[in-house]
């Protein structure tokens, strides 16, 4: 090259050098333009435009100072090749708390909602379990999710049936005398209960069936009615006045009266109805009952023979047609009621 330059004039030398520099610059420019890429990075819905000379998305993000957590969700493989005008979407993982099986877990997740997060964390949830907030709730930082394990079982109990005392009158015996002609014997009934548990603790029990095992035997008392005879001079007339207090239940009805099948249920804790009110048994006021709203609208006031005044405030999947479920404060009261067919009056 030096030998060639010796035979060239100064002007020609400058021309050749200029040509070589232009070639180098042009080649470099073409190379830079070839490897230069414009990409869009979307992080939690916010877009940022970047210029990169890297060949993979992972290197491009790292070069731009964008870190990726192992729990973050990315819609592209970080080792995939960068294309001009390419888009990569990143969803940042957030911290939430999960309370389940008497334990608390700190979870970092980039899932969209509670259901997807539970599935990703392999936290099993049965159809009967309660989830608060609901599965559809979107994840947010610091959100607390509580899972209540709900299960139920059927148990059977035997319960005595009280016998009745029957008074039979006998005019061959003095009214001052009475005697027991037949001793009473208690009967027995089998009660089937459905008991519901939340996190292993009983919350409700409901009578679903009762079967008569042994019929009770009435106690029979014979009461004399023959008056004592007394002799006196002249004529006398005696009369025995019997005063009795009769309790009368007066209800003003709208004119609709019908027969229904009734069952009973109770709660060991605070029970709330479908209408959001706390279940109550108030013999002196209005007690809570569950009805089929297509037969008896919620809010209807009722008089139920043998139970008292009530308000239709609850529903149930098994309560259909002329069927009412009565609330009692204790399991003993619910079992005593069992299953009965009674008359119901719709109150104004």
UniProtKB/TrEMBL annotation:
<dbReference type="InterPro" id="IPR007137">
    <property type="entry name" value="DUF348"/>
</dbReference>
<protein>
    <submittedName>
        <fullName>G5 domain-containing protein</fullName>
    </submittedName>
</protein>
<keyword id="KW-1133">Transmembrane helix</keyword>
<dbReference type="InterPro" id="IPR051933">
    <property type="entry name" value="Resuscitation_pf_RpfB"/>
</dbReference>
<keyword id="KW-0472">Membrane</keyword>
<keyword id="KW-0812">Transmembrane</keyword>
<dbReference type="InterPro" id="IPR010611">
    <property type="entry name" value="3D_dom"/>
</dbReference>
<dbReference type="Pfam" id="PF06725">
    <property type="entry name" value="3D"/>
</dbReference>
<dbReference type="Pfam" id="PF03990">
    <property type="entry name" value="DUF348"/>
</dbReference>
<feature type="transmembrane region" description="Helical">
    <location>
        <begin position="12"/>
        <end position="32"/>
    </location>
</feature>
<keyword id="KW-0732">Signal</keyword>
<dbReference type="InterPro" id="IPR011098">
    <property type="entry name" value="G5_dom"/>
</dbReference>
<dbReference type="Pfam" id="PF07501">
    <property type="entry name" value="G5"/>
</dbReference>
<feature type="domain" description="G5">
    <location>
        <begin position="147"/>
        <end position="227"/>
    </location>
</feature>
């Amino acid at each position: 090259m030096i030998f060639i330059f010796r035979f060239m004039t100064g002007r020609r030398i400058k021309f050749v050098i200029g040509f070589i520099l232009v070639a180098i610059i042009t080649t470099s420019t073409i190379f830079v333009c070839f490897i230069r890429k414009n990409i869009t990075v979307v992080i939690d819905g916010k877009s940022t435009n970047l210029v990169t000379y890297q060949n993979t998305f992972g290197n491009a993000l790292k070069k731009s100072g964008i870190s990726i957590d192992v729990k973050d969700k990315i819609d592209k493989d970080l080792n995939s090749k960068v294309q001009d005008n390419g888009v990569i979407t990143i969803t940042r993982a957030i911290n939430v708390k999960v309370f389940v099986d008497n334990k608390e877990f700190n979870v970092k997740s980039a899932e969209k909602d509670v259901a997807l997060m539970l599935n990703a964390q392999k936290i099993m949830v049965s159809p009967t379990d309660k989830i608060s907030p609901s599965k559809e709730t979107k994840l947010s930082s610091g959100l607390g999710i509580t899972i209540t394990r709900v299960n139920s079982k059927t148990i059977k109990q035997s319960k005595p049936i009280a016998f009745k005392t029957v008074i039979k009158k006998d005019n061959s015996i003095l009214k001052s005398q009475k005697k027991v002609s037949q001793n009473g014997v208690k009967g027995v009934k089998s009660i089937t209960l459905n008991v519901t548990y939340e996190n292993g603790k009983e919350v409700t029990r409901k009578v679903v069936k009762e079967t008569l095992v042994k019929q009770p035997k009435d106690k029979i008392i014979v009461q004399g009615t023959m008056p004592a005879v007394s002799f006196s001079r002249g004529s006398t007339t005696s009369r025995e006045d019997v005063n009795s207090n009769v309790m009368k239940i007066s209800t003003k009805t709208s004119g609709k009266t019908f027969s229904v099948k009734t069952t009973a249920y109770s709660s060991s804790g605070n029970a709330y109805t479908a209408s959001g009110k706390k279940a109550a048994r108030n013999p002196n006021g209005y007690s809570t009952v569950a009805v089929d709203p297509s037969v008896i609208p919620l809010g209807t006031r009722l008089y139920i023979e043998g139970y008292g005044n009530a308000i239709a405030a609850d529903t149930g999947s098994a309560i259909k047609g002329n069927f009412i479920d009565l609330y009692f404060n204790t399991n003993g009261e619910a079992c005593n009621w069992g299953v009965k067919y009674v008359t119901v009056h719709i109150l104004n």
